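anyone else get weird line breaks when pasting these?? whatever heres mine. first is seq + tokens for prot A
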Amino acid sequence: MPDPYGDRALLTSAMTRGYDAVPEQERDRLLRYLEAVVAARSAPVHTAVAFNAVYFGYDLGGEGYGGSPLRLDDFPVITFGECAPVLPVGAMVCVATGSDPLYAEIVYREGAHPGVSLHGDVPAWVSGAPAGAGGPGESDSGAAPRRRELLVPDLQAFGPALRLTPAQLHRLRARQRWINGDGHVVVDVCYPSPEAARRDDLTAYADHLLTTAREQLLSPFVPVSLAELVGGTHDQDLRAGLLGLLDTVRGALDSSDTLRTWGHYAMTRTSLANCWRDSGPLGGDDLKSLVAAVEHAAIPAKRRYGLVSPVTVYTAVGPRLRGFPGATELLTGTGYAAAVCRANVTLADVVQRDSDQGLFQNGARIMLDDAFESGGVWRSHHPGEAETPEDPLVPAGRGWASTLPAPPEPEPELHPVDLPLADDASLGPIELVRSDAKEIVWRSTLRLVQLMDGWLPLHPDVARELRRSHGRCPTTRLELDHVGEVSDETEVVQLVTAELGDDTGRLTGVSWPDAFFPGLMLEMRRPRGSMVIWVTTTRLEEPVQVGDRVIGHCYDPCVLTREDAPGSDRDGDSAVGLGPRQLVMRTLRRCGLLTLDGHALLDRSVLPSAAYGSRPARSQTAALEAAVAELLAERVLEPALGSRDAWGQPHFPALDGQSAIPLLGYRPARRRVIRPWGGTEPGGGGLRGIQFVPGHLRRLRPGCSPSELQRMAFREHCRRLGKADGWELPYGYTFVTEHTRGH
């Protein structure tokens, strides 16, 4: 059975690029381990928990995380009070209690709205309501919404040494201060912004690991560090690699023939079959009763006279399960998470098998309406024929939507505006590199307008010299040196015209090669007295990929963000014909506040008016919001939090004492383009069958000890992770330095 601390690391560099990029052999090894983890855990295994197992080293022999050398001091300490911080599924925490600290892994999370009855009846507005909702159609527009949530901690995850005795657990449950009588944690969670409350589970967990649990994530005692897998500790590289690993883990769980998934939660098919065969509490008979209750919840009693009016009923799975005789003790601890997931899988199977897109023969339409609140809220409506068919297993949030005011009449649609290029004085200045008796050397950034109109600015010193010696419009020889790209002789050497003023000048009639793009850094050189100007570019040590563009030469990220936006090329610059996704990206990159590394941030509330130049139609705003949601889910955009001062000016980061505002952030991807082994160019030839293996920890056999060379290598590994004086190897482990495998 594969082991995270075994001879071969389970996580590889390829996995940081997502499931589709992973070779079949590596997928199989990871899947075999994850299937064993799901079989060993008492609760359904969330994708984040499955990631924890392989990244932090979950031992399948009964020790759990207690068998790994993780430092418990790296865990965030949680003191539950009136309002708690965001704790996503997967968070490993130390709960401060009145006596010994309580170590736990959060393995399940759901909404715990107080409006849900003990029998599972849900007011319509609660189903699908956003965080901070206070009543039908009443949404808290504040910057920090609250939501009551139920968290299920696994108190057994860290092995026998940190496991509570039955007496200790009974005392904690009885006091109901840190955990309630069921062994769960019910807290009011304070979100930093409405956008944070809407983040999906994996994005929320990635944010948690990169901020609150950063020391834990970058611990040198994990089997193989994320920093080793991505080749550095830059935040963007870590985030992209972490999201890639989470995608790989989820893809592996979804591919298993022995597992079933409900959302992000995986359970074995064997455990489901055993449950359906069980005749005891919460077994097959009770699940059949639950299905029948949901299916017939909206069927009205027969009336002798008159028409039957439509009926809609919302049923919450978690509270409904508590109503079955004998279920109380089975719903304590992690048993609650297992029961809820099994019930939802059962309902989903019946809907898919016995209905036509949720419409049953009795005329009722059954749909999942909210996947988060109270274990999942199912909507039963009769008569169902009148409703538009939708995927019954995609949460629609119709309950909350039914309480919102009706939309006004459609407004006339506007066309997107052609946003002008931002007048950023810092973009692409002309920089004098050297001026001596032999030559003048200067540097500038290629701009979109230069590509469109075919010109190149001259340094003022060069313009003055040329005008004094050759007049206002001399012909000049331009030679381009773009290593590895330019091959056409007509592009390498060009005769161009110099248009010269008193202190300014430019070359016109320049035919820029197709490989040149906005933001490319150019270095110009003119020997004294010569009519030749050389233009050269500088190769990067390794190519990078920014969006869809693979870049092999030095560039200015700010100019690239502004002027390489959708709708911009040397043939024109217009927003006409762009779809909602492209329009969002163009608006954000053109109007957003720029950072030095090419990131752009925009107040989310002004996106529609910035894109259309006036108040757009409701349909246009909805299309932009849908596009934003897609781009956020794909991690092309990221949510951020800024502030607005008294004059309406936005700021990032948020400033103390100012009103917080949600921002959209464009963060250009900078994934390394991996060269083939032995090759010199991307796509070139080279050795095949060679795999790079990053440095990682390996468990030693009893009686063995690491060499001094391995101890030194581990200390150097720790220094690369930011620990200046390094750490010593944990007892029973050695460090395997990075190497290649294959031939």
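and prot B, same format (seq, then tokens)
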Amino acid sequence: MNPAHWIDTAASPPQPLPDSIEAALDYLVGATGHPVYMHWTLSRLKRGCPSLADAKREHPTVFALLLEHDAAVEYWDRGRLRIVAADDAPPPETILERVLHQHRRRFHEVADADTLLPANDAAAPAATGVWLMTLEPPHTGAPNVTCAASTTGGWLARAGRFVNPSMVTNTLGVTDDAQAVILFLRDRAGRSPHTRRAYLADLRRLITWCERERLGPLSDLTRHDLLAYRRALELQPGHGPVIGEETPPGTRQRARHGHPVTPRERSAAVPSRALAVVSSLFRYWLKTGYLTANPAADLSGGGAARAAWTPTRIMPASVVALCDAVVADLVPTGLTPPVWTRRYAIWSLYRYAGVRLAELVWSDSTGLPRLDVDADGNWTLHVHGKGNKLRAIPLPSVCVPPLRAYRLARGLTPEPGAFERLPVIHSEKRDALGASGLYDEVKAVFRAAEALVAAGDGVTLALLRAASTHWLRHGYAHTLVVDHAVPLPVAQQLLGHASVQTTAAYAKSDLAQARAFVEGSFPAS
């Protein structure tokens, strides 16, 4: 293989790997944060340690192998380090190719890398944006933005009256809507393929309406045009995506397993969300200098929608207790201890950290999510949340034992090191478990809990079959806001809500706390 045909998309601008196997392996060590392929000899071991006693203590497996063999190889394989005698080790190019495929969301193979890199610094922002989106492998399920734009012919590849022609203040450095849309999707929805699909669906809806009304391009729309679009959405609120297309991951999973999907889920792209995406696009364009005005200002009624929203998908404590009993039980027949401890760890993080599904998906570019432990033994989960917000979530002590057990089963230290840069949850086929795998592990806990349901309790069975990872997030928020009256700003920070109104909505889900406050304020004489 030629390493130079592999491009690191996390670099800015994207760059090819070194052309030699050894240099490419060294590059991957810095990019991934863990050893990839290291050839050990006794002399190399002595160079890295002050004495043989230190070498034996720091590298016991390598030291034992070198007593019987001339050389040993330490290499990365499926989320863990393996150390074998040099004669039994796979060749370095095999490990290099395997690691590149494991990180295929970051590294992409192309036939001719030179033709895909920006020719000059002035073109770098636009070229990088187009390159990042067009090189997404088709099997990952992520949308090809350039193909989406090309399906409208040359409709997007134009500029309207509000485009800023000055490259001094136009920080995007592009001059047509097609490139500006690609950069918007990369910056605002580049982390989650589900968010990209949803954003693309809403932008296609706007473009279809513009074509029908003979308006456009997007940068030429006036406030009058966008108000007319809002009225059109309000008159036809049921134009939602079809299952399996742009629906949320939980909805697709329930449909795949034969569970019912509600009309509300089937019509996920409601007018308020569609308008929110359009408003976000024009705000981004104005902020980056691509536009000279924002015709979509105050177009979205997001605040009113948040104020009226009340969470309903909250599992009763008795149902959650059934699931807790499942994961705390012995390893079931048919599962290996590493797989079972991983499932327990995944359940514990969603149960006690209140994270969104995508927030436990590993990102090479940010090195998140990440666990750390302070001097007092307190564990914290760091995630890259919605809206590109970084969030530190303190983990309760009940969450720590499953994480320690999983790390030990994975061959890691019980507690993460200060500079550890590894996926929190690994996959057997590649370094990190993706959103679909995480979702399936939680659903497996729900399915196993069905065996503990009392005969004739159809309500609990229906709840377990409909539940998803987001139900655990709702339960986490309900516990904070309702059960323990955590101050709303603190709960908002832990949940990563953009508005405190969203956090406050959980207080409306249960009148018991409000009733207690009222009774305490006006005691009987």
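btw re prot B: The CA atoms of residues 385 and 422 lie 18 Å apart. The radius of gyration is 26 Å.
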